[in-house]
Design goal:
There is one protein chain. The chain is an alpha/beta fold. It has eleven helices and 19 strands. α5 (96-106) packs across α6, α7 (157-170) packs across α8 (188-204) and α8 runs parallel beside α9.
């Protein structure tokens, strides 16, 4: 992968016609080290967030050996990169064929479920294996999350009691898990989830071998500025202590966005300007899905490329290159008032889901990926980079 010092060097040298995706390995090193140093247990990387091989290898080189996988293809990817990686098949709805292949072909022992029929499926597909670690996922409130996952996954409290008792009969190790939702903006969601597990332990008289507090750890965006991640992890530690268990179970988590969001950005080119509307060469069908459907406001900056920037900033919204009117990003994206056709913009915080959601709709697709050594536009782990981005 070709390397550049920063986005200015990249644009000045390549003058790209297509969108360019940028990866910052130093950012990944910083975030993985933070979680390994501060989380009170084992850290699993959520592969779905960014499955790029260069990113995965960087995460592994920084000491994370365990992965939250959601499909057989993700399992194949990680095993190709690191054959002895420990995988957790945490999607609660899986085909029996995927379960069987995961277990027999790739040695996966960890499976999540939130329904008795999924438990039956896992047992049948593994020929009633005796070495399964089964994780019962419970539903909790996602009220502080930007993306709610509770409508789709998780057993209700009443359902979980029987499911936990049943799963314990068939598991080598029993886990209980929850997920606070994506981009969780308040640490109290984790304490509520842990309190719910405490309530279940009291009602079932079953202490799990593993507690999985899931993912949902936030990153920083111009309009979403969560408190420091360390505060979240401290809240988790305090809540675990309040369970007052004789022996604390193994604790695991599944960060994704908080690990890789800052590491990725996309360089786009302005194709047309209509007043405060910028038509660009990437969009919601490309690497900018987060800016469209969930309407995340991405940090943005105009790239110099020899141009003098206006000191006056204007709020813009974006339209992508496809013929679909859904290819729209509301923003607002604050950029110099004199921006025009042919100018380049860097959009940050795309290390999470930027590469994952790309399609080839209308034939618009770019796989130009380069490595940068500069800092991200915004960071939860480096306060000095926050000043580069203006907020509407």
């Amino acid at each position: 992968m070709r390397k550049f010092k920063d986005v200015n060097e990249l644009v000045n040298e390549l003058k790209p016609d297509n969108p360019v995706y940028c990866i910052r390995p130093k950012s990944i090193k910083k975030s993985t080290k933070f979680f390994k140093d501060n989380f009170p247990g084992k850290v699993l990387y959520a592969v779905k967030t960014n499955p790029n091989e260069r990113v995965i290898k960087q995460i592994i080189s920084n000491g994370i050996q365990d992965f939250d996988v959601a499909s057989l293809n993700e399992i194949k990817l990680i095993k190709k990169i690191k054959s002895d990686a420990n995988l957790y098949f945490m999607h609660t709805v899986k085909s029996k064929e995927s379960i069987a292949s995961a277990y027999f072909d790739y040695g996966v022992k960890n499976f999540a479920l939130d329904h008795k029929d999924e438990l039956r499926k896992i047992l049948n597909a593994t020929n009633n294996a005796k070495d399964l670690n089964l994780f019962v996922r419970i539903a909790i409130s996602n009220e502080h999350a930007e993306i709610d996952l509770s409508r789709k996954f998780g057993a209700s409290t009443s359902e979980s009691l029987g499911l936990i008792r049943l799963s314990k009969e068939y598991s080598k190790k029993l886990g209980i898990s929850f997920h606070v939702g994506s981009q969780c903006m308040h640490k109290i969601s984790y304490s509520k989830g842990i309190q719910e597990i405490g309530s279940i332990i009291k009602k079932t008289k079953i202490t799990p071998d593993i507690i999985n507090i899931g993912g949902g750890f936030p990153s920083i965006y111009p309009d979403l500025n969560p408190e420091p991640i360390k505060n979240y992890l401290d809240e988790i530690k305090v809540s675990l202590d309040k369970l007052k268990l004789r022996k604390l179970p193994e604790i695991i988590c599944e960060p994704g966005r908080a690990i890789v969001a800052e590491s990725g950005s996309t360089i786009i080119k302005v194709i047309l300007r209509k007043k405060q509307k910028l038509y660009i060469n990437d969009g919601t069908y490309g690497s900018l899905f987060d800016a469209g459907v969930p309407n995340f406001v991405l940090p943005s900056k105009m790239i110099t490329n020899g141009r003098v920037h206006s000191k006056k900033f204007t709020s813009f919204n974006f339209f992508g290159p496809t013929c679909d009117s859904l290819d729209y990003m509301k923003g607002p994206f604050l950029l110099p008032n004199n921006i025009k056709e042919g100018d380049y913009i860097e959009l940050g915080q795309l290390g999470a889901y930027g590469l994952t959601f790309r399609t080839k709709f209308n034939g618009f697709y770019s796989d130009e990926i380069f490595e940068l050594t500069d800092k991200p536009i915004m960071s939860m782990y480096d306060d000095s980079s926050k000043v580069d981005c203006l907020v509407a």
